[in-house]
Amino acid sequence: xxxxxxxxxxxxxxxxxxxxxxxxxxxxxxxxxxxxxxxxxxxxxxxxxxxxxxxxxxxxxxxxxxxxxxxxxxxxxxxxxxxxxxxxxxxxxxxxxxxxxxxxxxxxxxxxxxxxxxxxxxxxxxxxxxxxxxxxxxxxxxxxxxxxxxxxxxxxxxxxxxxxxxxxxxxxxxxxxxxxxxxxxxxxxxxxxxxxxxxxxxxxxxxxxxxxxxxxxxxxxxxxxxxxxxxxxxxx
Length: 236
Fold this sequence. Notes:
This protein is α/β, with parallel strands linked by helices and 236 residues long. It is 39% helix and 18% strand. β7 (184-188), α8 (194-201) and β8 (206-209) form a beta-alpha-beta unit.
């Protein structure tokens, strides 16, 4: 799973709790994106996750599930992303829910298909920020500190910078990027046009595009080209 994720430059994130027409889904799946992540913050159930997976499986694009609730874990995905929110004091979102899942599912967990994401949420108004009680109003220096934590102390494979519906601060994302050498940087949040896509594609190894899928699918498809034609800045 880690090897596969290292090849992702652009991915779409689709929410099982949001409506998407068959035509729009076809355009997304055939856009040339590297993968599709299925996941969301609220209203996520086994049924709507399974239904979306079935629709996506008609196409050849890799599809992974980002798990936000144990009740909605669906077999059949190509892989599973496990978020651990770093900028919260609530242990449930750092490791508590993860331990509960391990106790419940034990030896049935396909560890070779699992990828841990170290999440840093930087939009205080986002649903996920309120849910996890994240300390999202971080300074540039504080945000970069989490990059050091993930890269040098935890040695995790991915740091996910989440702005969740709001376009992020380039200086802050750049500061995080410059702390990383081995850890892969994911960015998600508010990309709706070419300038935004190319801005974050300079700093993030993997750019995650979500909300624009539901407001302008044609522009969403264009983000694939915008991201992939942008030169990624060197780490460190």
